[in-house]
Design brief:
With about 90 residues, the protein is mainly α. It has one domain: Orthogonal Bundle (434 Repressor (Amino-terminal Domain)), CATH 1.10.260. The chain contains five helices and no strands. α3 crosses α4.
């Protein structure tokens, strides 16, 4: 057992060994999925109601709520966030 503590880079995907390009996309996808789940939970929406609002099937809402990130492209998540009334922007570091 090791007691070594390694400080995070700030992006768990980089820490897991993904390339900076892939890590950036995965981080954005994770953040959007989290915000969409919070939207659904905060509004106390059923999966059926969330599906109607977001114009996707209930099974896709189930995938979203279960965190099945591999089933959602970044483009699709931006579309869903926009349908939920969110304003999606990209911030870049200097």
């Amino acid at each position: 057992m090791s007691d070594t503590i390694i400080e995070s880079s700030g992006n768990v995907f980089i820490d897991l060994g993904y390339s900076p390009e892939d890590a950036a996309i995965l981080q954005m996808r994770a953040e959007l999925m989290s915000k969409l789940r919070k939207f659904i939970e905060t509004k106390n929406l059923t999966q059926a109601n969330a599906a109607k609002i977001l114009c996707i099937s209930q099974s896709r809402i189930s995938d979203l709520m279960r965190g099945k990130w591999e089933r959602f492209s970044l483009e699709m998540l931006v579309t869903l966030a926009t349908r939920a009334g969110m304003h999606v922007t990209l911030k870049t570091a200097a």
